[in-house]
């Protein structure tokens, strides 16, 4: 399985993804999962039927038909704040696993499914909190500057 999650040491690292539409997710506006769901729904212009839960997020990130760009990068900044006020720490772990799996799913899309394939990656601003969680959860990631950490 290839890497779907990248860690940026600065916004300048995003130049590597210059051919992607980059959507910024503000950690300061996403301190709880509910705030994150509201924020991502706004920035990605989710359809009205979004259910503000992990299953619904998974469904929409596996669809993305309303987004014209074929290459999409979600850049999470202020990751020290991202879902930092959620009472159950497993919720952030579940979210990270789902994001990783969703990006991987896009790579294996069957061309006959009548869906236009997208390339989806997730980029997180570097923070010790995020790096430790990715390693703990054994979610592979790569520094945009080139260092890889398979985390398991």
TrEMBL record:
Signal peptide span: none
Alphabetical list of Pfam families matching this protein: Barstar
Residue span(s) of domain Barstar (barnase inhibitor): 21-115
Family: Belongs to the barstar family.
The protein, known as: Barstar (barnase inhibitor) domain-containing protein
Native source species: Nibrella saemangeumensis
